[in-house]
Amino acid sequence: MDAVRSTRLRDVAFALLVGLTLGACAEPKAVAPAVPSTGDVAGAIDGATGTVFHDRDGDGQRDADEPGLSGVRVSNGRDVVATDAEGRYALAVEGDTEIFVIKPRGWMVPTGEHNLPRYFYLHRPDGSPTSRDPGIAPTGPLPDAIDFPLTPQDEPDTFRALFFGDTQVRTEREVEWLDADIVEQLVGFDGAFGVTLGDLVFDSLHLFDDLNRSIARIGLPWFSVVGNHDLNSDARVDELANETFNRVYGPADYAFDWGPVHFVVLDDVFWSWNEEKNRGGYRGRATEETLAFIENDLAFVPKDTLTVFLMHIPLKGLDNATKLMALFADRPWTLSVSAHTHFAQEHWLGAGDGWTGERPHHHVINVTTCGSWWRGERDADGIPHTTMRDGGPNGYTIVTFDGADYRLDFRAAREPADRQMNVHVPDGLVAGRTGDTRVHVNVFAGGDRTRVDMRVDGGDWAALDQVREPDPAYVALVEHEKTLNPPPKPALPAPIDCPHLWAGTLPGNLPAGEHLIEVRATDIWERRVLSSRALSVGAADD
Hints:
single chain, Immunoglobulin-like, Purple Acid Phosphatase, chain A, domain 2, 5-stranded mixed beta sheet
């Protein structure tokens, strides 16, 4: 807490210099007041001040009859303060900075072109350094005031959101595939907002606008997480790797409230440059600046609030995951969601993973919308099936939030909602010889706490065992595509040990003829999904 206290004290001191009083809170249930004490603004070369106000006419400009809003949090990407009784704030600014408002419950920031939330001011006095993809034009000195307009909106306790894993388009054609494969079925979706969990593009930063134009057709405000393929790959330091992303989407670390839920978006992709090899590379890591922002942000969030952390690289892929998780281990209601791996998985993190909370932390690796990087044989519509290397289809997740509770629903691209699993049985079954035949069930959104049962021809249900091995259906698909003339290029990725695969054996006495396998999977919310598979058993040789 010392880091939180010292940064907040610095801002209180700066506020006194400009004649403001920080931290007055009209809604103590939503935020906590800043800690008053002494401090200084050593190192601060400038400061940002302004007002968060009720934009009654929605024009983005503050008019005389538009009051300031108290208790709204504002940040410079590290420090977090709350507006005073008149909606005013002050923050220290050191060099290039993003100043942004943390959207409170019941209020909405403007959405600009393509439904992207505009909640920030980018301060780049001299502009971004020259790079292959344009960054931010020079902004000059700080304005006299950086004001943030908000408009009221209804945010009930229960709402739905869309979560996209890596869209990862590299060409305009792949944007068209995304549009036809995912976006078209979601136009008009009855939800609150959507989010893409990083790797929006595949190093083709010039496609940001085309991608945004496609996703905007859904009709929801859309938030974005930065991924390793969204970076300025010619940047020499991590601090300059997000300049194009910042220009289009805003800060890489930010937060917002929606309904009773608090969302924290964080940049966990750390970029560095190897002078000897003359190229850059990344690793999973949250910077000290990111950690400080999260700690300062959470200081305003009541402990009993469901807090959702959105990132690109999974927690297990971060070299300082333990330090990050320590910031929210004392909170009883948390969820974190990532993407990046191009297979779906859920973790229940415990002491062996560096988690110190009383009960395991639920971390979800989201299904990717681009699947296996838009690979595979094309269908009648000219779109690759892009099956992921865990054997699951590409798709997205619908998350339903209800107070401190949440539920996740997987959706396969262009498939009905009940497409939740695949049942695989080998060909060539023979009567009297089926007892050693393994049945594999890939439950696409399953996890270690999912229960899977099977029965044959209406018999008794029997539990299947979770296994860690490649999905044989995907293995067969990979081998099949190698035989095509010509085979699809690039080829499908190699199979992995599927983290959501179950197996069992058929009864050994199945007679020749037609039979029916039924499978049911029960998730952690005790919801059941069903699937079936017909199989034919041949007569034994005489």
